[in-house]
Amino acid sequence: MTATAIRIDPWGGPRQARWQQTVDWPLTIAAILFLVAYSLTVIADVDVATADLLRVLILVSWALFPVSYLVEISLADHPWQWVVHHPLNLLFVLLPLLRPLRLLRVVARSAAFQHSAGTAFRARVLVYLAGTAILVTYIAALAVLDAERADPNANITTFGDSIWWAAVTITTVGYGDFTPLTLRGRIVATALMLGGVAVLGVLTATLSSWIVQRVSESEDRRK
């Protein structure tokens, strides 16, 4: 049996790489559990005992990330350089709702994904973008509903409202029929707008590159 190759970061070194390989899937599962628990607290009408259990699950799954992050820093060959060159890891610690995006990163590195997407880089980018857009839309819908529903003047009061708002916001359509009123809701909206612009920018660049390549190949065949 061939051992799975460990990717060694130049700033992190082999000890950190072994740790990351060990905790990769456990942290991904913790991120999914966090999202499920948070979803239930926002969407579902649960009793007090279930709500307490969900809060404990959220707290435990949240705590795993800063602990793992500190271990990664302690094991790195060049700790400060590693921190500077890996801002996404710190972002996952500071913004728990982004942690389910780890699943996309793990899946993108898996052999099954590489085989199914083939060697085409653009195909992998498009699949990754689609997954990111769906997850970010869902997460933003949860966050804005959680922020808005306590406001008596809010017009985003159901999950249907929030998912519709998130969809039109990330696609930069912005009908304006639903708008966040709270500060926290507007912060979520700003982040989602920036995310939507970034996703559409990468998508446009990827499709443009593919079209240019196809035109070039067509011209080469005519020669």
Automatic annotation (TrEMBL):
GO cellular component terms, A-Z: voltage-gated potassium channel complex
SUPFAM superfamilies: Voltage-gated potassium channels
GO terms assigned for molecular function: voltage-gated potassium channel activity
Keywords, comma-separated and alphabetical: Ion channel, Ion transport, Membrane, Transmembrane, Transmembrane helix, Transport
Positions of transmembrane segments: 25-46, 53-71, 125-145, 187-212
Domain Potassium channel, chain residue ranges per copy: 134-212
Gene Ontology biological-process annotations: action potential
Main location (coarse class): membrane
Membrane topology: Multi-pass membrane protein
Localization terms from the record: Membrane
Entry-linked PANTHER family: POTASSIUM VOLTAGE-GATED CHANNEL PROTEIN SHAB, VOLTAGE-GATED POTASSIUM CHANNEL
Protein name: Two pore domain potassium channel family protein
Native source organism of the sequence: Cryobacterium adonitolivorans
